[in-house]
Amino acid sequence: MSVLILGLLVFLGLHSLRIFAYDWRSRQVARLGEKRWKLLYSLGAVAGLVLICWGFGLARRHPVLLYVPPMWLRHLNALFTLVAFVLLAAARVPRNHLKAKLHHPQTLAVKVWAFGHLLATGMLHDVVLFGAFLLWSVVLFAAARRRDRRESTVYPAGTVRGDTIALVAGAVLWALFAFWLHVLLIGVNPMA
User: Fold this and answer.
1) What are phi and psi of 123, to 5 degrees?
2) CA–CA distance, 141 with 16 (Å, rounded to integer)
3) What is the rounded CA–CA span in Å between residue 118 and residue 32?
4) Together in a domain, 44 and 122
5) Number of domains comprising the chain
6) Can you tell me the distance from the alpha carbon of 71 to that of 41, in angstroms, rounded to the nearest whole number?
7) What is the pLDDT of residue 20?
8) Backbone angle region of 68, left / alpha / beta, with phi > 0 → left and psi within -120 to 50 → alpha
């Protein structure tokens, strides 16, 4: 469990610098230059992600049951995950109504994904992983919305074309992950 927690601290800590250490982050970007900062940031994030994956795998070897969710919550989680993939796609597709209205759909995608997985799983390692991401995404979303208001950020209006691309891309990515990649990468069939 310690490797998982270390990975979460590294990964989520780096992704929280704009929330808790904005001035320090700005000084480092100015000191190192944007390209070097992004390189170091990316290397740190990848290291954190590797630690999370490794630590989660290690923790799964010694499961500690906290609660047993009903089977219907596993099926409901498939819907939560579909919504998360559509929100994730909306974060990348230009000019869609989801991004225009929500402003930070990727953070909401993490929130929906983590919440759904907390409902559907009941092991300690699941609660640590998904609970950490849920808490982080709640704090990040609130901070990002405050920053948008402070900086008077305006998001481009959405279009039907942008909406269609986001919905189709999200649904296709969800299907690929739900029916193939989840088993391949995580070793769990979410549709079983």
Assistant:
1) -85, 155
2) 11
3) 39
4) no
5) 2
6) 40
7) 92
8) beta
pLDDT tens digits along 123-146:
999 999 999 999 999 999 999 999
Q: Could you identify the residue written with the tokens 């969800």? A: 174
List, for residues 47-56, the tens digit of each pLDDT value. Answer: 999 999 999 9
103 and 51 fall within a common domain: no
Q: Does 31 share its domain with 46? A: yes
CA distance 45 to 23: 20
Answer yes or no: do 37 and 79 share one domain.
Answer: no
HSE at residue 49, side-chain half, CA atoms within 13 A, is 7
Distance, in Å, from the CA atom of 32 to the CA atom of 48, rounded to the nearest integer, reads: 21
**With contact defined as beta carbons under 8 Å apart, do 169 and 93 qualify?**
yes
**Spatial separation of the C-alpha atoms in residues 115 and 122, rounded to whole Å:** 12
Residue-number span of the structural domain to which 52 is assigned: 1-62
Residues 106 and 21 in one domain: no
Decide: 81 and 113 in contact? Cβ < 8 Å.
yes
Q: Does residue 92 share a domain with residue 78?
A: yes
Instruction: Examine the domain organization and report whether 128 and 187 are in the same domain.
Output: yes
Collapsing DSSP to helix, strand or coil, 30 comes out as helix
pLDDT value of residue 136: 98
Structure tokens at 165: 């691309």
Global confidence as pTM? 0.92
